[in-house]
Amino acid sequence: MSVDLILDKLNEQAGNISPIGATVKFVLDEHSVYVDGTGDKNIVSSDDKEADCVITTSMDTFTKLKNGELNPMMAVMTGKIKIKGDMGIAMKLQSLLS
Question: How far is Cα 79 from Cα 97, in angstroms, rounded to an integer?
């Protein structure tokens, strides 16, 4: 899955859920995907800004998460995903990724 396709899919999903009330940055290999949910809607971009929660993983792992092929908790426990910042925000992201 390309970063452009990920941006499109997250943008589509972000419009269907309530604002997450925080900022999140996904670092996918050398790409950044930034979600700003502090306003009245979630905004997804390729900005590389500071965020309340930073989730680092590979494009392959992210694709498996998005497709439901990988359990997020197992991915964290096995080191495939690294989370910095507010863990509570990371827990809210299930609706954004499904």
Answer: 19
**Token code pair at residue 26:** 């996904």
Residues 10-21: pLDDT tens digits?
999 998 999 999
Q: What is the residue range of 74's domain?
A: 3-97
pTM of the entire predicted model:
0.90
Name the residue with tokens 């800004």: 49
> Which CATH number do you get for residue 53?
3.30.1050.10
Domains in the chain: how many in total? Answer: 1
Provide CB contacts within 8 A for 19, sequence distance 6+.
37, 38, 39, 40, 41, 42
Q: Are strands 53-57 and 23-28 parallel, antiparallel or unpaired?
A: parallel
